[in-house]
Amino acid sequence: MALETIRSEVTGTVFQVLVAPGAQVAADDTLILIESMKMEIPITATCAGTVREVRVTEGDGVADGQDVVIVER
Asked: Where is the Lipoyl-binding domain (predicted)?
């Protein structure tokens, strides 16, 4: 079991969380949408696996580099 930490690539606000713990994801699936400067920025899975933890909720502020999702490969 290896855990992969998915991080935000921008500073902004969580617009939409598209996954929940237990969800199966493929590499490049969109997990979260971040609103930044009036644009929606997708945060995507870096690997295939199972979502173990979602560390943000809709409306949360996020910083560049902040952990947002943990995926088990």
From this structure: 1-72
